[in-house]
Amino acid sequence: MKENNLRYIIETWGCQMNEEDSEKISGMLKSLGYSPTDQREEADIIIFNTCCVRENAEQKVYGNLGMLKKLKEKNPNLIISICGCMMQQEGMAEEIIKRFPHVDIIFGTHNAHKFPEYLNRARQEGKSIVEIKQKDEGIIEGIPIDRKSDVKAFVTIMYGCNNFCTYCIVPYVRGRERSRKPEDIINEIKGLVNEGYKEVTLLGQNVNSYGKGLEEDINFAKLLRLVNEIEGLERVRFMTSHPKDLTSDVIDAIAECDKLCEQIHLPVQAGSNTLLRRMNRNYTREKYLELMKEIKAKIPDVSITTDIIIGFPGETEEEFEDTLALVKEVEYDSAFTFLYSIRQGTPAAKLENQVDEETKHRRFNILIDEVNKIIAEKNKKYEGRILEVLVEGLSKNDDTKVSGRTRNGRLVNFEGSKDLIGKLVNVEITKAQSFSLIGKIVE
Ligand code: SAH
Ligand code: SF4
Ligand code: F3S
């Protein structure tokens, strides 16, 4: 590889899908001889990888794009590029170019692999390039990936989403479901193990429908069992599961396979049947609670996490109370709580009975208080226990400590040096904090 002295910075908003796309863009740039920097002022190429799942994600991008104008004035050779989910929305690319003419390259989620080509063209032609594709061009394998961690890696097993929950923009900006071939996934993970990786997280918007449309006789449970066979791999996680598609064979696989960690992220979104119907989630509160029972019975020490939306159009006090009651009943180990955000183009955006901001915030605060109380109580129960921790890196703000996660996903900080990174160690939990644990290493 020839170095070219040019530096890039990629700033990523949104979920692991975007993180992975950014790792691919970075991988391509590195293989072309570019090197990364973490300072915008030092960069020759600045790339924003955007998310549009909620309005505040978009607002942040606008603010940041505005700030780049000065940098471009100082360094006219600077290439500014913006990509990701936000760009896939109708009319968005045109609006960005109009409002921020200092942007050089705009592309979407279906053509990130073409970035090096757009970069060349932008340099040669000296004018802005806008390339958004409405459909994917098939799954592109073999793109170099420059991963952030040396210990754990995200591996996408499927792209897109077919579910069209009425509030959600993801299916419109990420396209229809398509699965990678099992051998491509297995080979990628074997390659990672050879490089020293210990943990993989299999990614998809709805991993339980993995395999549909492939010629191979495969489904998600079978894939999990195949991945579990990979020698040298220590831990396997996955996200996201959709409650309507989570089957007993997946739960059994977690219970039976030693590498599959005892952790399930199962977004419930709401605890009321009428709300779930309006959200087009295709399961009931009863079905969800049945799943919880089965999971807890079959997988000891399992940790269950979720996503919840507050203030969906028409949400009544009673419906909100149902969500709150479900949260108390399930006792989540962690929950991502979101204020409903109108996304143009989705069915829920057309509903007239939007919940007023004050009500939304009031309910949101009640929910968060409850969730935090449950998490703290659950963490407390870990005091005195000895748990296996995979060390991921030095602790934030304290380099005499390292941090890692238990099999069921809890963050643990303890005294240790950087040669522990990548190792599995036993740690005695000495103190539970609100969102993490403190411990000491035991022989
Ligand atoms: N495919 C995953 C996650 C998709 S987006 C799933 O089905 O669970 C991550 C989370 O963002 C969702 O679970 C949902 O809770 C939240 N979300 C999506 N659209 C939203 C909106 N319009 N307003 C607020 N939260 C939203
Ligand atoms: Fe969005 Fe629903 Fe698809 Fe998840 S399953 S990405 S919430 S449409
Ligand atoms: Fe955001 Fe796109 Fe993920 S909209 S949540 S980055 S799929």
UniProtKB/TrEMBL annotation:
GO molecular function: 4 iron, 4 sulfur cluster binding; metal ion binding; tRNA-2-methylthio-N(6)-dimethylallyladenosine(37) synthase activity
Span of domain Radical SAM core: 147-378
GO CC terms in record: cytosol
Cofactor: [4Fe-4S] cluster
EC number: 2.8.4.3
Record-linked CDD domains: Radical_SAM
Entry coiled-coil feature ranges: none
Keywords carried by this UniProt record: 4Fe-4S, Cytoplasm, Iron, Iron-sulfur, Metal-binding, S-adenosyl-L-methionine, Transferase, tRNA processing
Location of this chain's protein in the cell: Cytoplasm
EC category name: transferase
Binding-site residues, [4Fe-4S] cluster 2: C161, C165, C168
Pfam families (alphabetical): Radical_SAM, TRAM, UPF0004
Gene3D superfamilies documented for this protein: Methylthiotransferase, N-terminal domain, tm_1862 like domain
Catalytic activity: N(6)-dimethylallyladenosine(37) in tRNA + (sulfur carrier)-SH + AH2 + 2 S-adenosyl-L-methionine = 2-methylsulfanyl-N(6)-dimethylallyladenosine(37) in tRNA + (sulfur carrier)-H + 5'-deoxyadenosine + L-methionine + A + S-adenosyl-L-homocysteine + 2 H(+)
Stored InterPro entries: Elp3/MiaA/NifB-like_rSAM (IPR006638), Methylthiotransferase (IPR005839), Methylthiotransferase_CS (IPR020612), Methylthiotransferase_N (IPR013848), Methylthiotransferase_N_sf (IPR038135), MiaB_methiolase (IPR006463), rSAM (IPR007197), rSAM_horseshoe (IPR023404)
Assembly mode: Monomer.
Protein name from the UniProt record: tRNA-2-methylthio-N(6)-dimethylallyladenosine synthase
Gene name tied to this protein: miaB
